Amino acid sequence: MSELDLIRAIRRWSSNDLIGDDCAILAPPRGRQLLVTTDMLVDDVHFSLATHSAYDCGWKALARGLSDIAAMGGDPHWCFVSLALTPSTDRKWLTAFYRGLGALAKGHNVSLAGGDLTRSDRLSADICVIGSTPKGRALTRFGAQADDILYVTGTLGAVAASGYTLRPQPRLDLGIELRRLRATACMDISDGLALDLHRLALASGLSASLDEIPVAPGASMEQALGGGEDYELLFSLPPGKRPPRSAIRIGSLFGGKPGKIRLHGRPLSVRGWDPFAHIDRRHRV
Amino acid sequence: MSELDLIRAIRRWSSNDLIGDDCAILAPPRGRQLLVTTDMLVDDVHFSLATHSAYDCGWKALARGLSDIAAMGGDPHWCFVSLALTPSTDRKWLTAFYRGLGALAKGHNVSLAGGDLTRSDRLSADICVIGSTPKGRALTRFGAQADDILYVTGTLGAVAASGYTLRPQPRLDLGIELRRLRATACMDISDGLALDLHRLALASGLSASLDEIPVAPGASMEQALGGGEDYELLFSLPPGKRPPRSAIRIGSLFGGKPGKIRLHGRPLSVRGWDPFAHIDRRHRV
Question: Chain A residue closest to B204 (CA)?
Answer without folding.
Answer: A21
